[in-house]
Amino acid sequence: MFLVPHDLHDAHALVIxxxxxxxxxxxxxxxxxxxxxxTQCSRMAEARxxxxxxxxxxxxxxxxxxxxxxxxxxLLDDLRRNQLLPFYTVFIMVTxxxxxxxxxxxxxxALDAYLLKPHTGAxxxxxILQARSRKAELEDIFSAIDEQxxxxxxxxxxxxxxxxxxxxxxxxxxxxxxxxxxxxLAEARTLYEAVVEAKTxxxxxxxxxxxxxxxxxxxxxATTLDALLQDEPExxxxxxxxxxxxxxxxxxxxxxATFKMATQLTPHSISRLLKHGMLSYYAGDRGEGIELLDRAxxxxxxxxxxxxxxxxxxAFARLDANDRKGMARVIxxxxxxxxxxxxxxxxxxxxxxxxxxxxxxxxxxxxxxxxVKHLTDAILEPWFDFEMATNLxxxxxxxxxxxxxxxxVEKNVEKLGLRFCTSRALTELLASAAAGNPxxxxxxxxxxxxxxxxxxxxxxxxxxxxxxGTVIRLxxxxxxxxxxxxxxxxxxxxxxxxxxxxxxxxxREHIASVRESLQTQHQITRLGDAGSANAAPxxxxxxxxxxxxxxxxxxxxxxxx
Length: 561
Prior knowledge:
The protein has 561 residues and is mainly alpha-helical. The chain has 26 helices and 5 strands. The protein has helices spanning 20-33, 44-53, 72-81, 100-108, 121-137, 139-146, 150-163, 168-181, 185-198, 202-214, 218-231, 236-248, 252-265, 270-283, 286-300, 309-320, 324-340, 345-361, 365-377, 386-401, 409-420, 424-433, 438-463, 467-481, 484-496, 504-518; strands at residues 12-16, 37-41, 58-62, 90-95, 113-116. A 5-stranded parallel sheet has the order 2-1-3-4-5, with helices on both faces. Strand 1, helix 1 and strand 2 (37-41) form a beta-alpha-beta unit. It starts with 11 loop residues before the first strand and ends in a 43-residue tail after the last helix.
């Protein structure tokens, strides 16, 4: 059970400070305060490893590091966005910089305290005890979260907010995040709007936009975000969500510019480099995308925030450049990720795919064709996701370019399009993966048009008074193609016209089983954050106890969080 240790001698602190003298002073002050265990590190990479593998009650982190390009703020940002910092951990930033903008930035990052140099041991103790007092005051909420009782945790947060109890704004932020993350979008939006009305705060305004985007209203979200960014032009999290909204609307060029702004504001954020690099690769400047993914790999390949799909795209680049040494290095890196992963299935699958690219580079035709057959046979399997679809399209393009005789290649590209063209944005992304083969891109666009036609034909039946026929037609077409949009549309029509549909309960049970088997509710992909599937870009991250419905790759996480 979650519990804030009341005695400091039971607490474990981590000091992250590059200057040996300053680090020694902080350690001495913490021990004088009464901390039983103090761990230290001088570099951010070392700090990231410790924070990803161990839990600390208090973290004291320097804002600037003389010999490093990143900052303590960058570290906190990535930890928070990738839910690697538990609720109970007190995070205190130490800095000599007293500018208002930095203090405001730290507050928006859900920092517990900001300590200016020079400081006394008494001042440090005061900040730590204040933060721990808040954690203790909200212990019932954290305990519910730790027990994975998110309904009770959200209820407790809302109670505290409505009563304006101690730390009501902080509780509202946690509660709204829980509601948003568990799909209760309308309630989350209401709570965020209540916070905005009570006290206009950037994170609450961002929460409203996230709820709008989660409900499928990308235009309204973009309007909300545009107003927010007018007031807060350096709010990096807002650029993340704005980029997703623009992606949803099909404005790839604007989305790229927005992600570039977020990357410029936080140039050492692993997750933002990955997201920006991946979209650049598929829908912008492929060379720039590779450069960004290379940088993310150099900075964060040993981090839990790193996504191995980036290495697949780097492998494509090595293949296109006929770079055998570079390809061997990618395979070595993917092998390391597979060997240390707690969920090795995905890294193993990606490694096997890259080995096929290596075989193509070495002109091992039989091995390449075997992998192509394995993947094309699996296009309609539940595990075959959008990430693998883009990878397969890229492999097919290069196999044809190298004059391999691929069996029914155009038919399989069409099958990919019929399954994964669930929106205009995703259609364009999948077509972008076919760069170098205009015919494949045309087939993908035609598949999207066919999906739209199937939807239109089915909906005509409802207009003519036969909603049951619409549900059945959408479901049949959805099952034959495994297209998530068609299946979800059948579910929505059924729920809308249930009172007029004979056998609605039986149909609902059947569609629910189809949705569950194909996990369609998680396949309608939108642009989201790198890192864990439940990263919270505009608020607090859920704890490790929160389990998303499935483990997804970066491309599968291109959806609203």
